[in-house]
Amino acid sequence: MKRILVVDDDQGILDSTKQILEIDGYEVETATTAGDGLKKIESTFFNLALFDIKLPDMEGTELLEKAHKLRPRMKKIMVTGYASLENSVISLNAGADAYILKPVDPDMLLVKIKEKLDEQDRDMALDGEKVAEFLEERLLSLKR
Hints:
This protein is an alpha/beta fold. The protein contains 5 helices and 5 strands, in the order E-H-E-H-E-H-E-H-E-H.
């Protein structure tokens, strides 16, 4: 089961997003502050995280940068009601895999999440193939 973290200071958004994602088969945890979100990221593996851009204790882009350093393979999607070219560029440069505007359409959100998780699965499969190739080459070189 894929694990998703949702960080938003609006409890209503957290509750509805969690419900939508759980109905679709995801295991979901939530946090209302960036600090709580970072603690969860440090202690638990998540396949994907949704970050609000405006949080009470730090900007979502700062949370994104810290999360990217901690878990570079975790897919990260920024969600904002404050659309601007500057925010989108900062987010993408800080490691965001996608940028979604509020109000979020649930169907579009699920499509985007599936797309990013499929990318993650492909990346992990390629990494596994590279390791297998390396080991095979190494074994062959040792036999020579």
